[in-house]
């Protein structure tokens, strides 16, 4: 039986030319295919292999039975590995025309720092740009190929111009475009993301920052990107840090009373310990109360022996939370809510830990602080909440994003967030805008119905006087909703002023110089509309759901 199992798991040997007995190295693929290769060739092509072969063989490199040839296990499958090796050897190269064939090989070439294969594969990708520019842009983002990303983005912009002469001033010769009807580049991008050939999955594995820069380039309408598409717009050293990496993780000793002395130790995974009071924990956290009770019960006998010997050691409780967050939590336990952090990253960690360990009061206070910070920094709050898995916090922040413009608004947190999260936010914003627009149209219909009644012969006033520019109010309401757009940076979001004085000012040019009763009647209609509109806008937003993975 053991022999059959061994045969079933034995590696197979690759086809010519990677089966030469004279080769001095064996590369074993993830699907257990052995490639006999020549170390000097790989050393010339790849600095990574050159360094590997110049060092003593690590424990992960075994010895093959044949010719005592070292075996190096690699993560690539046999198909990708063979294609990569063919690019390294002076033999016929396989022509790769599909993204699915090129990408795994390109990833491997970049992993092993193979300059020549990277150049060849990038050239193959350049030929695919006219057919699938968005997919090639996505590959360029994942592989960090700036020039390729710019070419793909420029092709999307070029395709948006349709069959008309684009007047392109591209660095490279113009290439064949897809025949499309002229449309806004962002409209084309939206349709591509809805197309079965692309779909939103093309955004997976890409940062929100890269997606933002693509959209900004398409929105501005430049022939070529004027800034890098794949580089952060700010120094990466200024990006927000995870709170677990912050150096400030010590709890101020002045917060912890020395009498009575601390009687339990909380130990974090990084080895940092906090000496605290059992009573402070059990009063605020039922979860820790139970754990402390279990700890004390299990250590009661050794503790009695220690007491008899004249030495007392506090029991130790392992805490599955980073020391920075635990320090903040304990500062709140001993010093109150004034110690709640104002940094969104640290606050999110505090909220998660408070819920995890059952500190209900701290969780509630942290949630209130989050809502305050998210109101002033909704985009940062949204991306951080998505990153930390705080769905309710993300929905609250997304609702606050609606109150201002979203086009051309950049956040440093985009660099560590996903393009899909940003795309879902844009979809939510646009869906809310459409929903609000429908409600606004209903309000306009109410106003127009009133105008038809008083000016179309259905009212006493229609035979005496006609309102001037009466349709201006309806146009004003329509413009409010239409300005809420993911593509227009001057949008004010859904922060509409829908109070009665505003509506009266919007319709001030229609008032006649007589007939106070008519003025009163019109004012009554405007009052009704003004009363209903805020509720209609709120209802419009409520009926839209934010998609969260």
Automatic annotation (TrEMBL):
One Pfam assignment: BTB
Regions of compositional bias (Low complexity) in chain numbering: 239-254
Domain BTB: residue ranges: 23-89, 262-342
Region listing for Disordered, in residue ranges: 159-186, 222-254, 298-318
Gene3D superfamilies noted in UniProt: Potassium Channel Kv1.1, Chain A
InterPro entries: BTB/POZ_dom, SKP1/BTB/POZ_sf
Bias-annotated ranges (Basic residues): 169-178
Domain of life from the UniProt record: Eukaryota
Bias type Polar residues, positions: 226-238
Protein name (record): BTB domain-containing protein
